[in-house]
Amino acid sequence: MTTAVQNFLRAIDGPMTSELVLRPGDFGLGQIPARLKPVSTTSMICGFCSTGCSLKVHLDKNSEAVNLSPDADYPVNLGMACPKGWEALTPLAATDRATAPMLRQADGSMESVSWDQALSTFCDRFKAIQTQHGKDSVAVLSTGQIVTEEMALLGAVAKFGLGIKHLDSNTRQCMATTHVAYKESFGFDAPPFTYADFEESDVLVFFGANPCIAHPIMWQRVMNNKRKPLIIVVDPRRTETAMAAHRHYAIKPKSDLTLLYGLANQLINREAVDQTFIDNHTDGYEAFARHAREFSSSRVCTATGLTPEQLDQFAAEISDRTKRVSLWWTMGVNQGHESTRTAQAIINLSLMTGQIGRPGTGANSITGQCNAMGSRLFGNATSLLGGYDFGNEEHRAHVAKILAIEPSTIPTEKSWAYDLIIDGIEHGKIRGLWVIATDPAHSWINQGRFAQLREKLDFLVVQDMYTTTNTAQVADLILPAAGWGEKAGVFINSERRLGAVRKVARSPGIALSDFAIFKLIAEYWGVGEMFDRWESPEDSFQILKELSRGQPYEFTGVRDHTHLTEAGGIQWPWTETDAATDARPDTQERRLFADGRFFTPRRRAKFIFDEPRPMPELPDQDFPLLMLTGRGTSAQWHTGSRTSKSGVLRKLAPTTLYVELNPADATRLKVRAGDKVRVWSRRGETFATAMLTSTVQIGQIFLPMHFDTVNQLTFPAYDPHSRQPSYKACAVALERAARR
Ligand code: SF4
Question: 102-174+371-499+508-534, what's its fold?
Answer without folding.
Answer: Rossmann fold (3.40.50)
